[in-house]
Write a structure and sequence with these properties.
It is built from twelve helices and 21 strands. It is of the alpha+beta class and 393 residues long. The two termini are 44 Å apart.
Length: 393
């Protein structure tokens, strides 16, 4: 269908993000079931965690990595009749009606109490009840299984780069990005009461936190590094085991929670240390144009010269700014065999491209761009259209 046939209503176009009822054999629309993943959650060390056997079970539909299940194509807003999306079960979601403070919300995050992710959750939803989870995937499962209402998980850090695990999990699960929050990271060196810096021989923390403080720790004479799952977990372990020769790189809140002394503050090598977190929900929010919005998508392309250039051109020609681009190898199709008239076939990596657009899906310009991209992309999915965080980190 040509772009000239686009519906005039911006609201109709915005509905492209909303799920569309499947059709039964008789042609009548049947309501979309709420998917509850059968993965038992249990409490472990104060965090929600999934049993080891349950982590190996399939995780729902829509994943292009999973054989036998078709990847969801981007639904062209041009071909979406108004009566179709209006018949969906509740296009106005709880995300639209919830108080900005998140009063009553249960928000999952990865790590133990005192983790930076908990601080991000509290910044995003100041009045929420936080739900600590052992793994990133457990936080996804907690929202899918209605154990939590939202999840706040890191996507990238200004020093350490992208958290690739969460990019992969976005595709494996059917949650939607409904917001973002930026948090300034201020690392502290923590130790048990009475321990001095000169007593420390080792520093324990998350690998990225250790990397961000590498030069400072070396200058302090701390030679050894011990990596654990999260910063607050390191503080908790040092407090529980009463270690005298090991310090934790964690937040001042972790020191307060676990009764540790702060031996040094702001020990990160670069003062501009900011982590960007995504806010996830079971349903998308309705995009708007009255304030800054960002849209996150993922797509794949055929192999060939100029394919990526062609994909980026659909945004450049419409003057849509791209704020981030990340490529990840396709998990189930890591290599693509191409015959380039050589003596032996060449093998290329098959990639997925994650892109953030400085635009709202309520903007017809952005919808036209995605409609154009859909014409030649082998896979296209909108991960979310959500307000841009314009507050101070």
């Amino acid at each position: 269908m040509s772009m000239a046939a686009a519906a005039s209503s911006t609201t109709t176009r915005a509905a492209a993000l909303l799920p569309v009822p499947a059709r039964a054999a008789g042609g009548a629309a049947r309501p979309l079931p709420r998917t509850v993943v059968s993965m038992p959650l249990r409490a472990s060390r104060g965090c929600v965690s999934a049993s080891a056997s349950s982590l190996q079970q399939p995780l729902g539909d829509g994943d292009p990595d999973r054989s036998g299940v078709p990847a969801p194509a981007f639904r062209d807003p041009i071909s979406l009749p108004q009566n179709d999306w209006m018949s969906c079960s509740g296009p106005l979601t709880s995300a639209d009606l919830m108080e900005p403070t998140g009063d009553g919300l249960k928000v999952a995050y990865q790590g133990c109490p005192g983790a930076y992710s908990e601080a991000a959750a509290k910044k995003a939803y100041p009045s929420c009840h936080t739900v600590p989870c052992e793994y990133f995937e457990t936080a996804f499962q907690a929202v899918e299984n209605w154990v939590a209402d939202r999840a706040v998980l890191p996507l990238e850090n200004s020093l350490g780069g992208s958290i690739h695990r969460n990019y992969d999990l976005l595709l494996r699960h059917r949650l939607h990005i409904v917001g973002e929050v930026r948090l300034a990271v201020r690392h502290c060196l923590l130790a048990n009461r009475g321990v001095k810096i000169e007593n420390l021989r080792s520093a324990m923390s998350h690998p990225q936190a250790l990397a961000q403080c590498e030069q400072t720790l070396t200058k302090l004479g701390i030679e050894h590094r011990e990596a654990v799952d999260d910063t607050a977990g390191a503080a908790k372990l040092i407090a529980e085991q009463k270690l005298q020769d090991t310090g934790a790189v964690a937040s001042s809140l972790a020191a307060e929670l676990y009764g540790l002394d702060i031996l040094a503050e702001n020990i990160q090598d670069d003062t501009d240390n900011v982590t960007r977190f995504m806010m996830l929900a079971r349903e998308p929010i309705i995009p708007r144009t009255d304030k800054p919005f960002k849209t996150s998508i993922v797509f794949s392309l055929e192999e060939g010269p100029g394919q990526l250039f062609k994909a980026l051109a659909v945004f450049a020609l419409r003057k849509i700014n791209l704020t981030k681009m990340e490529s990840r190898p396709h998990k189930k199709r890591p290599l693509r065999i191409a015959d380039d008239n050589c003596s032996a076939p060449l093998k290329h990596f098959d990639y997925l491209f994650y892109v953030d657009l400085d635009a709202s899906m309520a903007d017809p310009n952005a919808q036209n761009a995605l409609g154009n991209l859909k014409e030649f992309a082998t896979f296209l999915r909108v991960l979310g259209s959500y307000p841009t965080d314009v507050t101070e980190a």
